[in-house]
Amino acid sequence: MTHAFAHLHVASAFSLRYGTAFPAALVRRAAEHGMDTLALTDRDGLYGAIKHVIACHEQGVRPVVGVDLALDGASSTPDDLFEGGLPSGRRTGHGHGRGHGHGHGHGHGHGRGTAAEPARVVVLARTDGWAALCRLVTAAHHAGERGAPYVTPGMVAEHATGPDGEPRLTVLLGPRSGVGRAVAERRDDQARALLAAWRAVVPDLVVEVSDLYGYRDATTAARMIGLADSMGVPVVLTNAVRYLDAADHQIGNVLDAARKLVPLDGRHLDDPTAHAYLKDGAEMARVAARICGGDTGRAARLPAETRRVAERCVLDPVEIVPLLDPERPRLHLPEVGEDPVPLLRRRCEEGLARRGLERSAEARDRLAAELHVIEKKRLSGYFTSVAGITDMIRAMGVRCAIRGSGASSLVNYLIGIGEVNPLEHGLLMERFLSEGRKGLPDIDIDVESARRLDCYRAILDRYGEERVACVSMMETYRARSAIRDVGAAMGLPPHEIDVIAKAFPQVRARQIRAALSDLPELRDSGLNDRSLETVFRLAERLDGLPRHIALHPCGVLIGNSTLRDRTPVERSLLDFPMSQFDKDDVEEAGLLKLDVLGVRMQSALAYALQEVDRVENRKIDLDAVPRDDLETYDMIRLSRTIGCFQIESPGQRELVAKLEPRTMHDLIVDISLFRPGPVNSDMVTPYLETRHGFREARYPHESLREALRETNGVVVFHEQVMKVIDVMTGSGLSEADRARRALGTPEGREAVRAWFVPLAKENGYADDVVERAWKVLDAFGGFGFCKAHAAAFALPTYQSAWLKRHHTAAFLAGVLTHDPGMYPSRVILDEARQCGVDVLPLDVNRSGKAWLVERTGPSEGGPVEDGPVEDGPVEFGRGYGLRVPFSAVRGVSEAEVDRMVAGRPYTSLADFWERARPSRPVAERIVEVGGFDALHGLRPGEPRWRPGRLTRRDLIAQVGALDRGSPVGAAGQLPMGFTDRVTPGELPEMTEAEAVEAELEILGMDVSHHVMDFYRDLLDAIGVTRARDLLRQRNGAEILVAGVKVATQTPAVRSGQRVIFTTLDDSTGPIDLTFFESVQAHTAATVFGSWLLAARGVVRRTGGRAVSLRAVHCWNLADLDRVWRTEGLDAVRAVISEVPVPGAGVGGRPIEYGNGFRVSPYSDNGAPPAVREGRFPGHPSAPQRRLWHASSGSSGPPPGR
């Protein structure tokens, strides 16, 4: 009987910047070839192993898993192979092996037989060798530098056998091993000695041969077979697979060049031929015949020996991926030191008393039901472990809050994991955990972002590295990163690559060439040049391939002493132990994960409380603050929410103005409504109409009244979807949640409809009722929002608003220090001014490391009056100021900041230079932005020439003299009589415009004056409407507005169009503009490429205080200013009166979901892009700091850049 060929050396895309195909594709191809066994042997790790095992299970292919590891460069000859003994495999620190150069960096790739690169071996796990393989990979990463793991033969030998002496690993010595290289170089004695040395310590040793049709490949393979046969070592045939198809070799070549940081040239390629693809059995038989020549018997034995090796390395999929057996998954549970069941029950009883629920029958019934599920799933230890961690975090003085569906659990509330009472908000445990739900619970904890790493270290200290590891994630190629790597491989100059890459939005790499024709801002960019065609074509083929591994922002595995048997671990960039599995893999592997997410708003709140305590000598327990404060809700309903958690975006400011929240429940609804599901199913308008009494509440059926009463008949929450399904089918909430989850895919929707409709009809519901209910479920279910998540978010949302209303300066100091929101610092500063808070300049004697609050007068905060618009903004923050910190200075180091703060007060610039010891550029920048104005009585502006009076430029000259007079290595020693050589007034003072330009360039914000102040005359002359006057404009009026662009977003909208939402700041408030596709042909390039904008738009009033503009045209304000100064006002009016020439809008086919939801392929769908620069009018220099928020859909460099 002829058996199918088994590939034992296969690299997937998880061989970073080496492989080109994902595990699932490789397994599908193997199944198509009729193969029943397939190995995955990625380089340097098991990153794709779980996905490989799952794919094999789905396709009916038996999985084999191994790893392709680099050998320590010292282990190249028999004499030093084992360095005189069997090493432990673990070295002190992260020392290098002698002469090795490998890993994810430039030395990672290895040409066939290139002696300058380290040798490699392939190690397969035998049927019972998964744990040994995981620990070997962990040891390899511990021995080498980060990204450059290696093993010694002794390390391999140490892990190759188990405690019983039986082999656990199979080692393949192939063409890239020391043996293979010695054979290729005809050093037969050395090859024989190396093979003998390996065979002496590794019981299951195999020689691997392959022929990729390269120079002397077949000859080398034949000689290796001869060597192995003469020494009685088995031989296997492989194809060293790294491609799915032969055509993929071009991508492999690009990856080789990118990995090695060398130009694309034949000298640097790992595989000069295109044969390293997943060949079928017939092709591999031809390879065997080519290697063995006329020896047909040997050619037949070669695949058979390969299969025999494969047989003893086949893994049990359920052993590696326990969730493949949903009925009885073998979970990796944490150790808690005692029986976790009574421990959790005791903590819950204590929680009932502490929360005042010990007499509540509802609470006790709910608790009993939850504990039944938790104990049945054997998760008591997990909950007690998480509770212990949250207790520890709070004991460290770190703010900690629950988020996500975990807030649905009463147990989480009782044992102190979260502060959201699920009974109070009607939250369902089944949304978080139920008997019928496949998978593990996922508790998410928000901590202060500034203390997140401290929390990680505390968890590691508490449980030990053997029991804890962080989760990893793969950074993949998108448009910009693909263009950068391909451009470098093609030899383009770095500055050209940077310009080209930044021109694109953060879209998939496969959309590069489509974007050039689809996006108006790119059509005339010149990037369609044929010289770039190859770059873009190759870059598109990198789409989605993993580029490098990174630490997941929040995932932490909590296990027991056998954790390292279940997952390989390496060091992250921050030196944390990190699993090689991503968040999906760890769940499939039965590993329990806690998400500890660093949230900037939590840090901002903590900092604000510190400032209140420092300035007011008042400690505030934010969790105990009443949640019904009318002044806070008044501020929210007036849309004064910039800086507040979740409700500061233009769309949210419009929504809160319409909804007018008055309770925590209103905030929960608001947060849930601002999601794709409610928008797609058109639930926002009906909810608002019923809330404000413009229409009666309507229910699909009277039996659904109770489920939908809290939102007046409108489905808003996931939990309501579950309730509708439960009521109409009688299936129970657990089954209802399974159905809700299935609504996220087209196949799932079809299956749920086929199940839901007949069952609802059987329960007596009329056809029209069932159809109406299904339409709601179909439109909403896959895109809705979890009420528990919204409830968890609503708490910090309210807390942030409360702090802004009652401690405005302290709150904004926290926002400026920790940057939690979507707007840059300059917008927060302008909001501070609108609230009556003074913005205080940098001062060497008063500034600190972070933003500080100072009293500037009596506090005048009071109730927010909903009075006439003419009354102006309510300044509830008056009486306080915000001091610019040293850390805001561009280029300053943390050590310099510490010295500056420690040395206060200073008596002169010379004193500051001597004791703070700043670098010359930093000292000059501090002078430029006024850091010494108060000390020396300086003030920019007219007159510029001030004989006998010191100016900022005089002080800058003094810095130069101080630097020249300081001996090398002794910057604090001053020349004698230095001050006598300075003539005050020798240089002119800076103008106010120059001072603001310096602030923008050095601080990234305009402190002394708003930028728009310098355009006031032009704006008045052309009739620009200010933000403070928008509420006076009638609906439908066409007006001119202007301001600094502070935010640009292209979110997914229901129509499938790419809609650009832009916010301008004109010093009197925000102006929100909407650019629809119909006007983007003549506006998109200006919107994305300009910092200062003037725009014409139609007023759109959607509520008492909700105003936005539908833009019809826009211009670069700096260009208009230049026209005004050179050609006059009439020329400006002519420019803004021109009728734009119609042009093509945004192209591309919208992504359409099965429920009708359409999304533009160029809407937001990725990480925030790199910051682009803006220019100050009339000056050549460009601010270097973040001046506006740009979303993932933003594209195009500034014109002319």
Automatic annotation (TrEMBL):
Domain Polymerase/histidinol phosphatase N-terminal per the UniProt entry, residue ranges: 6-73
Biased composition (Basic residues): 91-111
Entry GO MF terms: 3'-5' exonuclease activity; DNA-directed DNA polymerase activity
Keywords recorded for this protein, A-Z: Cytoplasm, DNA damage, DNA repair, DNA replication, DNA-directed DNA polymerase, Nucleotidyltransferase, Transferase
KW Plastid (keyword) present: no
CDD domains, per the entry: DnaE_OBF (cd04485), PHP_PolIIIA (cd07431)
SUPFAM superfamilies: PHP domain-like (SSF89550)
A Pfam family the protein falls into: PHP
Catalytic activity: DNA(n) + a 2'-deoxyribonucleoside 5'-triphosphate = DNA(n+1) + diphosphate
EC numbers: 2.7.7.7
Highest rank taxon of the organism: Bacteria
Region (Disordered): 78-115, 1160-1201
BP GO terms, sorted: DNA repair; DNA replication
InterPro entries the record matches: DNA_pol3_alpha_NTPase_dom, DNA_pol3_alpha_thumb_dom, DNA_pol3_finger, DnaE2/DnaE/PolC, DNAPol_HHH, PHP_dom, Pol/His_phosphatase_N, Pol/histidinol_Pase-like
Record's protein name: DNA-directed DNA polymerase
